[in-house]
Amino acid sequence: MGMSNTQIKNAKPKDKPYKLSDQGGLYLFVKLNGSKSWRYDYKLNDKRTTHTIGTYPETSLAEAREAHIAARKLVQSGASPTVTKNQEANSSIMFSTRCNTWLSKQNLAETTRKDLAQRIEKNLYPYMDSKCLTKFTTRDLFGIMEKMTDRGTRETAFRMAGILNKVYNEAFLLGDIEANPATGLTGLMPATNNKTKSNFGHVTDPEDFKVLLQQIHKPAPNRDVAVTLALKLMPLVFLRPKNIRFMKWEYINFEEALITIPKEEMKMHRELKVPLAPQAIVILKDAFKETGHLEYVFVSTIGVGKKKLTPIGESATTNAIRRMIDPRTGEPFGTGFMTSHGFRHTASTMLNELGYRSDVIELQLAHESNDRVRATYNKAQLMPDRTRMMQEWADHLDMLRVSP
Prior knowledge:
The chain is of the alpha+beta class and 404 residues long. It is 49% helix and 10% strand.
């Protein structure tokens, strides 16, 4: 026989919390302070769990019994009544809301936080906020990752999969979902091409890039001055290493803030114009003090006295990066962290994630394109857009490098 409303109303606190049983496992839990709540203990997947139905008198005896019957049916079907209750309560919660809360708790430099927020906003929110956070399956999430891998930003896909896993894990721990749909998501994505990685190692994590830029601007005493200047310029212009090594002073126009690489020097046999931000001009003027009287911009200072006067070696910049010490580990960056060619991949990935038009980026990278629309853009050159992007990119790198 169950309890009566009189028994429930007259239940007083005791020297320790206690239960008043009703029927079928439903009971009233009375705390030391006199507060009362309806609870139901059940076993699911060999685990004993307590489901809180509601508080008394907000939830009446009749309402508690009705909710208890519904909860028992869920348990019999293999579902958790607590999770189901939370899902119903959070049926309108959006991924962006939960993700912003997660992001605010991360110990990140402000610049890094802003970069990450922009990446998430661009790559996840348009898809994830199309429905409630709890309604996504693993297949749904994988489809979103494919949108990134299909456009060539595989590293972004892996990083966004990691963000999904962390945000959904919080939702799981809070009881909003019964299982994390992002678990194992990275294992579904295509494996990297190890050969490509070793040849064109590059970074896309802002923290890694910040540390690298800082080390470039803090050269070891024995580093060739020409190598340091070339490394400083590479992130600002993202030319192919060959175009950096064999850059001639005749290609540079300081008054127009422009580098013009003739088509004979380009892989696609098309002339390339590179707008120069003031930061790049400062570097080139520093180089002019060293080699302005010579043909090439980046001439090795090692052996100048021996009348070599040759451009820096093919592997000079990549080898310099390998030898740089990562202050976070005290060890050299080593092979695979970043190559001189990798600056192009880094710029492409990060500029896409920052929201710049892909046509402007591809044109500045001098990539081949058979797309008719892009071919039309190529004819127009898009110089105002490219000039603005290169200036904003240089400012972005300055902020990243000096961020705490």
